[in-house]
Design brief:
By secondary structure, the chain is α/β, with parallel strands linked by helices. It has helices at about 40-60, 75-95, 105-110, 120-130, 140-169; strands spanning about 5-10, 15-20, 25-35, 65, 100. It has a 5-stranded mixed β-sheet. Helix 3 (about 105-110) crosses helix 5 (about 140-169). Belongs to the RuvC family.
Length: about 170
């Protein structure tokens, strides 16, 4: 069984979600958001780091799956997002967790079957896959999608690595 912490980084709201593989399915552990909006920017980064560190200690995930930064229009926002992402990655790395990175399109493709899926489709698939009574909030759903994406990709990645290793022997 694998337990993965998914992160949807943001400088004001960082989503998190923890999912376990359970046989051929998945099991929901927890999810939520870290809100930092009223703090100064350096304080926001500290809050993200400390809250995720506490979450990792409490739930003992085996790996961290984090959304890659994508620049749309505002470079300043992308830089702040990158710094929030860095605080999240450091929380996992300091505690020895392997960090895996996926684009939003990769997570959407893994869950919905198309990389251009909208937020509501992601929320609905997260709810269905984890058998939740209601769809989680957007940021938590995106974080759960990151964790599910990694659990979906891991078996495939292991098979590719094994096949490649055999080919080169």
């Amino acid at each position: 069984m694998s337990r993965i912490l998914g992160i949807d980084p943001g400088s004001r709201v960082t989503g998190f979600g923890i999912v376990e593989s359970a046989g051929r399915g998945f099991r929901y552990v927890t999810s939520g958001v870290i809100r930092t909006a009223s703090a100064t920017f350096p304080e926001r980064l500290r809050i993200i780091f400390e809250d995720l560190t506490a979450l990792i200690h409490e739930h003992q995930p085996e790996a961290l799956s984090v959304e890659q930064v994508h620049v749309r229009h505002n470079v300043s926002s992308a830089l702040k997002l990158g710094q929030a992402r860095g605080a999240a990655i450091c929380a996992g790395a300091v505690l020895g967790l392997p960090v895996h990175e996926y684009t939003p399109a990769e997570a959407k493709q893994a869950l919905v079957g198309q990389g251009s899926a909208d937020k509501q489709q992601v929320q609905m698939m997260v709810r269905l896959l984890l058998e939740l009574p209601t769809a989680p909030p957007e940021d938590a759903a995106d974080a759960l999608a990151m964790a599910l994406c990694h659990l979906h990709q891991s078996p495939f990645s292991r098979r590719v690595a094994q096949a490649t290793a055999k080919q080169w022997k």
